[in-house]
Design a protein that fits this description.
single chain, alpha/beta, Rossmann fold, Arc Repressor Mutant, subunit A, 2 domains, 4-stranded antiparallel sheet, 9 helices, 9 strands, about 20% strand, elongated
Length: about 200
């Protein structure tokens, strides 16, 4: 599935692009409204509202007038009036910043199911390969883990942490890297949370 991310904030764009790519999505980027409107067709659009040249609501209206591509607004504007206005202008969903990557991906999948975006898109979602490290096998498609052929039950966060570590087995990671990559940079909890996982 090809996702167009319309975001001008590099501190959000970088981790978002990396996280979506890691989940197997093909990511295209537009940092202005004009770039978004002239971009090649996508299967889904993630749209920030605070763009440097055009208001995101205008971009949403123009996209909706010419295409049925699913649009998920991703904005720091969290007031009910903002959410309602964008949904009425044609957005399919609205996510308030800061957000967790897992929630955003779940919303992308939900909107895709409702709209048939994956079926209508020009590309299919790339299925990431299984990761095998010794007797450990992580199936990224089904989100299952086996150790020596036996299923291992993990919480979603334990799965994310194991997947991140196994993807580059043997690499040393700092606590800060783990928090940023697994919990994402917008997570505001205690770093001691990592200790229990």
């Amino acid at each position: 599935m090809r996702i167009l991310v319309v975001e001008d904030d590099a501190s959000i764009l970088g981790p978002l692009r990396e996280g979506l790519s890691r989940e197997g999505f093909e990511v295209e980027v537009a940092t202005t409204g004009s770039e978004a409107l002239s971009a090649p067709p996508a299967d889904l659009v993630l749209l920030d509202l605070g763009l440097p040249d055009l208001e995101g609501s205008v971009v949403c209206q123009r996209l909706r007038a010419t295409t049925s591509v699913p649009i998920i607004v991703v904005s720091a504007r969290g007031e009910e009036i903002d959410r309602v206005m964008l949904l009425e202008l044609g957005a399919d969903d609205y996510v308030v910043k800061p957000f967790g990557l897992r929630e955003l991906i779940a919303r992308i999948r939900a909107v895709s199911r409702r709209t048939g975006a994956a079926e209508l898109g020009s590309t299919d979602r790339i299925t990431p390969p299984a990761i095998v490290v010794g007797p450990l096998c992580i199936d990224q498609r089904s989100h299952t883990v086996e150790f020596s052929g036996q299923p291992v039950m993990l919480t979603p966060k334990e799965y994310d942490l194991l997947l991140y570590l196994a993807a580059d087995a043997g690499a040393v990671r700092s606590r800060e890297q783990l928090i940023q990559e697994v919990w994402d940079e917008h997570w505001w909890g205690s770093t001691k949370t990592l200790d229990v996982h």
